[in-house]
């Protein structure tokens, strides 16, 4: 049988199930990635499970999100994470080393391996010929404990690349083109596999840009072949001996097909407030801007900063604008300094920030009220920047740099300069990027600051209950809207009681108080439209509402990672059988659930009644036997305890 690259990766790691689209499979995980916004919970979960050392080939804990140390909380958590890494046998990347995804790519990513990360953009490492998947923290915890990762076998969409990118068009425009065509749901239940003659025209970091934002399409993973370019990249990192070739067999079949002629692309931009709201830059050219932001895991490469440097070299940014530079790794920053690019940017008026996620996750660089911000980040969901009524556009470094010179959104092709040619370094420094764990962990004690609390105990779902609809929401509700990120919220990532006070505040700032009133009186439910829970993998977006008494979520459909997070914490996820029934349910309605334990085990479709009326809503679930066991136990932690 002729296999594509994604099928080869899955087949090589398949532990249970069959490779039939839609069937649950269990796969072996070789590597894991955690970052500090999600990693504290993972480490607490490892401790709760009594794990001595992780069972993976390599696991790494990165500190890249919560870098602003305005009080003790983030600093304490960094100490906790380092002690946990030493205790459990995990590599540790300290603050300032950079964003997890490019650093992992530089230090640990290996073709042919699987990677599971508690960050939705873990899929970026698919650029290396890996099967790299983002998941909720507790799924990553299970993988670190040696358990399989369970997921429904995705369909494989083959994306054939032909041609070569024109001047002033770069990898960001490729993934924006995919989003323009397919939207934020276009990759749900799929692996996107890029192949064809155009692939060899893309560097390893160009592929990272494209693979990273597969998350914005809702894809399970993105896979690129491992070819001579990946071998060259590993050589620059001193790891050439870890290279293997991985590519689709001749005649390999894909479930779906797409083709992009790179030569025909033009500069693109995603308008507020969705990565899927993509138009040509020419359509919005001339709109005033306040900020251009370059960096993040969505444009992490040397050339992404160097091209901006060359565009602004010898010039000054427009008055009233801010050019924010967010280096993605210390390794990269060293080379940019050595080759004069940082000097070019600073001389032009840029602001230099530390290597990390920073403004991408709302950690600084928030834009002014009512002003446009151009960002090379992967997401522009409402409020994600840290400014509630933000106006964030997503674009390439070329468009961001050109626009900050003129003060308005500018098609970079209109600049009166030749397109800069960037020469990539042939060798990078790898010293001090990862701290290896000690061989003997017997004397290691976990360092816990006062902000770190234990995970609350949750009771299993009742058999008969009535719950009010506390919120009714529209389509594409993101995890940033369910539970905001940013410097105000994320320092409480290891304190569920406190972080829950921020739940749904962007949608309804009275939610917390209303939920607390009902928490001990049966709880509540929420209703929404399509693609509920898109975006970040942070399990806090399920865990905090669960603490506040969320029992049921009823929507038109779910984003993959958030759906699993709801199950993991004992929240019943249901979808409308008839989408028009969404209109029948109002905020404040009470729904009756009867004999739910037996019902969900025997039926995938059933009715729930609107209390005080003769109306019923037909709902459904798509839960496996394992999902049902977890749900009826009150969540995966209870389920694990029952199995011990």
Brief overview:
With 644 residues, the chain is of the alpha/beta class.
Indicate the topology.
Layout lengths: L4 H9 E3 L7 E4 L3 E5 H14 L8 E5 L9 H17 L2 E3 L6 H8 L6 E4 L13 E4 L2 H8 L4 E4 L2 E8 L8 H12 L7 E6 L8 H9 L8 E3 L4 H9 L19 E6 L6 E3 L7 E3 H4 L6 E5 L6 H11 L9 E5 L3 H9 L2 H8 L2 E2 L19 E4 L15 E4 L2 H10 L58 E8 L6 H4 L13 H4 L11 H9 L4 E4 L12 H8 L2 E6 L4 H9 L3 E5 L13 E4 L2 H7 L2 E6 L5 E5 L4 H9 L2 H8 L1
Parallel strand pairs: 3-4, 3-6, 4-5, 6-7, 9-10, 9-12, 10-11, 15-16, 15-18, 16-17, 18-19, 20-21, 21-22, 22-23
Antiparallel strand pairs: 1-2, 2-8, 13-14, 20-24, 23-26, 24-25, 25-26
Give a verbal description of the structure:
The protein has 644 residues and is an alpha/beta fold. 29% of the residues lie in helices and 18% in strands. It contains 21 helices and 26 strands. The strands form six sheets. The chain has a seven-stranded mixed barrel, surrounded by four helices. Helix 2 (36-49) links the parallel strand 3 (31-35) and strand 4. Helix 6 packs parallel to helix 7 and helix 20 (625-633) packs across helix 21. The chain is globular, with a radius of gyration of 24 Å. The model has no long low-confidence stretch (mean pLDDT 95). Its EC number is 4.2.1.3. It catalyses: citrate = D-threo-isocitrate. Monomer. Residues 8-285 form the Aconitase/3-isopropylmalate dehydratase large subunit alpha/beta/alpha domain.
Which range does the strand content fall in? Answer: 15-25%
| Rounded average pLDDT | 95
Give me the Rg, rounded: 24 Å
Low-confidence blocks of residues: none
What does the main sheet amount to?
7 strands, mixed, barrel
Number of strands: 26
